[in-house]
Inverse folding.
């Protein structure tokens, strides 16, 4: 029996958070959602996820800072968790910026939900 893949979504927009949750739950992913990067790091102290979706612009700790913090975690397994950027202002960052921060991929807003499912599936195989 295969276990359900766990997805952590960090997104301060309730609308995007809820849409992504519904789409991914429909694909049988288990979803945990938070509003900022600091909450991501607090959760990672206690739990393990198969993939993390990070909004770039969040209060308290943004996605870029959060991704760098995840990559420098002492727990090597958690530090390697796939991370996907979600951004509405891609012009502010290059693919190189995302790679440098530790992201595996980036999704642009408005979210293409087929692409969301495809990226999550590919990175959690």
């Amino acid at each position: 029996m295969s276990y359900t893949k766990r997805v952590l979504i960090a997104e301060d927009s309730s609308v995007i958070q809820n849409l992504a949750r519904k789409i991914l739950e429909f694909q049988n992913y288990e979803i945990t959602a938070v509003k900022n990067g600091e909450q991501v790091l607090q959760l990672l102290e206690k739990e393990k996820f198969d993939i993390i979706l990070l909004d770039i612009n969040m209060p308290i700790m943004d996605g870029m800072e959060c991704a760098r913090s995840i990559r420098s975690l002492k727990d090597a397994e958690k530090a390697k968790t796939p991370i996907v950027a979600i951004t509405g202002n891609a012009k502010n960052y290059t693919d190189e910026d995302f790679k440098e921060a530790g992201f595996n991929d980036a999704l642009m807003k408005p979210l293409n939900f087929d692409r969301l499912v495809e990226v999550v599936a590919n990175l959690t195989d």
